[in-house]
Design goal:
3 strands; 7 helices
């Protein structure tokens, strides 16, 4: 088994390194939230709140599509936002569909969140300018590659023996 030096990790540590990167980015944004008096505001909440502010009441599926996450992730985030008192979930025009809307408490936070969003966007652009290739483009490219061929298939193809019970 060949191992890369700790300062030169290879693709075998891809998931671990991506979690490290995401954790550092989210921790710094959360620290800015605290600096702005928005302690407890999770970075993943902001795109949902901004979407609801811009588009008005929305279904979980519409939020998931707009924010770019799975339905399950959107549902979990909306449930957390509801527990925090930032959104209400209620019936839509059709009984099968529930709509999420902002509470007055969330509306009060919007000016500060918008200021933070603009500053974070500018900082992200400056960060990407330091890289050899924009990270946002690489992420899009990686997601498209996984849409074409999921990692599970790639791993299965690299295994020396077929996985039992798989077609």
């Amino acid at each position: 088994m060949t191992r890369s030096a700790p300062d030169d990790p290879g693709p075998e540590l891809l998931g671990t390194r991506l979690r490290l990167l995401l954790g550092r980015l989210e921790a710094d944004v959360a620290a800015v939230h605290a600096d702005l008096g928005l302690a407890g505001m999770r970075p993943r909440y902001v795109p949902f709140l901004r979407t609801l502010a811009a588009d008005g009441p929305s279904s979980i599926q519409d939020l998931a599509t707009t924010v770019g996450v799975t339905h399950s992730a959107a549902s979990q985030t909306v449930a957390q936002l509801a527990r925090e008192g930032l959104v209400r979930v209620g019936p839509g025009q059709d009984a099968r569909r529930r709509l999420t809307s902002l509470t007055p408490a969330a509306r009060e936070l919007l000016p500060a969140l918008e200021t933070e969003w603009e500053a974070t966007s500018a900082a992200a652009a400056a960060f990407e300018a330091e890289l050899s290739h924009p990270l946002s483009e690489l992420i899009t490219e990686a997601l498209e590659a996984l849409d074409r061929r999921p990692m599970r298939e790639r791993i299965a193809a690299a295994l020396p023996h077929p996985i039992r019970g798989r077609d």
